[in-house]
Specification:
Shape: globular
Largest sheet: 8 strands, mixed
Low-confidence stretches: 18-22, 409-417, 422-443
Number of strands: 16
Helix content: 25-40%
Number of domains: 2
CATH superfamily of the largest domain: Glycogen Phosphorylase B
Strand order of the largest sheet: 3-4-2-1-5-6-7-8
Radius of gyration: 22 Å
Mean pLDDT: 90
CATH topology of the largest domain: Rossmann fold
Length: 444
């Protein structure tokens, strides 16, 4: 008999187009993990917020996987920072869905703190245990973004409640676990490290010359690639500034792939405009190409065409894009933060540099291009590491092991949390109780 489980991903649907401000790693995580779990025999419903009026309630997406669109606020796109007030409606409608259809889920896997809040409510009402992957922690975000963090203050209390209430917390890397213990006093025995992954069917090596021909790129250029969401914390400005320290490198080109539109709109998009201005002020605008959003097939080609993939965010809970680059045989230069310092082995599969340090980034590029034999070794080891430790099938096996443990936990004592949620300008009390129910680059 197949095992039935539910995923909650309130703002990150597996059906969403990637590259937008609120579409990125979590969407990929939910989609790919569920695909691999289905291959292990799971039946999965993914609950996500209905953000378009034309979406049906249920989409039979793939064999064994359905996407359930839950009414929670207006059926339009809403920034995730403004969704918290709709989670009460989300919870009620999810509980109603389960009851009306007599769904018997063994457990819930919540993604992000708002999904954890919903899972906690479902657990209280229906006794379904849950595990949670936070993907990002509010206290760590606050440390880096400070007043630029647009999430409500209640996030921190909610996260603390979830850490105490969840049957297990999934940390995506050792730094994630350390942050949970140090900042949330999480019980280490109820934390398990399960990384993110990549699809070997989707991302794999291809000769650089072939990929560049597909994309219309020159064979003899030195291509640096920055790919992902175009938001300040991703440190794209740091990569642009690093180009200024590489003026003597011939035919160097930085491709910035990502955004909500296929052709970046500098008039409407403030972050694109800021990045363009930085390139112009630094005198490197001619070497920087803002590509815009691309589909998954094209993303693969960009990874395969690049000499180095660059990712220097301020912080990064995990980061899937470095894995995808490594899977294409492209070494990574990344910030020595969070998950990146876990996935990238410094001077073995790529280079780790401090964030906010364009000079250090430029020096890493110089070191990487100085010796063709060394570069080939970086490519080889990057490919070996990612296939050994970060495939989605590996991740799903780890998740399966965790799910099987959940039913064997000894119930903990109930605790009561009172959290004030802000909804449409009004404060609404909500009572949460823990339920005890169970330069010389050889072309590849």
């Amino acid at each position: 008999m197949k095992r039935k489980i539910a995923f909650i991903s309130e703002h990150a649907s597996p059906l969403a187009v990637l590259g937008g401000v609120d579409s990125g790693g979590q969407n990929v995580y939910v989609a790919e993990l569920c695909k691999s779990l289905a291959k292990l025999g799971y039946l999965i419903d993914i609950f996500t917020r209905k953000d378009r009026s034309d979406l049906p309630e249920i989409v039979s997406w793939l064999p064994g996987i359905r996407v359930v669109h839950v009414d929670a606020g207006p059926a339009t796109e809403v920034p995730k920072e403004q969704l918290l007030g709709f989670m009460d409606e989300f919870s009620k409608n999810m509980i109603r869905f389960i009851g009306q259809r007599h769904m018997e889920y063994e457990l819930i896997h919540a993604n992000f703190f708002m999904s954890g809040l919903v899972a906690s409510r479902v657990k209280r009402r229906l006794g379904i245990p849950y595990v949670v992957t936070f993907h990002a922690l509010g206290k760590i975000r606050k440390l880096h973004q400070q007043d630029r963090d647009a999430f409500p203050e209640e996030r921190l209390d909610i996260e603390q409640m979830i850490v105490d209430d969840a049957d297990y917390v999934i940390a995506e890397c050792p730094q994630d676990k350390q942050d949970l213990v140090e900042h949330y006093q999480a019980d280490p025995s109820r934390i398990t490290i399960i990384p993110c992954g990549f699809s070997s069917d989707e991302f794999h090596p291809l000769a650089t010359s072939v990929a560049r021909k597909q994309l219309g790129l020159e064979k003899d250029e030195l291509i640096l690639l920055q790919l992902g969401r175009v938001v300040p914390r991703k440190g794209i400005d740091n990569v642009i500034r690093a180009i200024g320290y590489l003026r003597d490198v011939p035919k160097l080109r930085l491709l910035i792939v990502g955004g909500s539109e296929e052709v970046p709109d500098f008039e409407k998009d403030e972050e694109f405009r800021r990045l363009r201005d930085i390139a112009e002020e630094g005198g490197v605008r001619s070497q920087v190409e803002f590509v815009g959003r691309r589909n998954r097939q094209e993303l693969k080609q960009y990874y395969q065409a690049a000499d180095f993939f660059i990712s220097t965010p301020w912080y990064e809970p995990f980061g899937i894009t470095p894995l995808e680059a490594m899977a294409c045989g492209t070494p990574v230069i990344g910030s020595a933060v969070g998950g990146i310092k876990y996935t990238v082995k410094d001077r073995e599969t790529g280079f780790l540099v401090p964030p906010h340090d364009p000079k250090a980034l430029a020096l890493a590029v110089r070191e990487g291009i100085s010796c063709p034999n060394r570069y080939r070794e970086l490519c080889r080891k990057a490919l070996e590491r990612v296939n050994a430790h970060f495939t989605w099938s590996y991740v799903a096996e780890k998740a399966d092991q965790l799910y099987r443990r959940v039913g064997h936990r000894i119930p903990t004592r109930p605790a009561i949390y009172t959290i004030q949620l802000r909804n449409a300008g009004d404060m609404q009390p909500a009572d949460y109780r823990n339920s005890t129910a169970a330069y010389a680059i050889p072309r590849r």
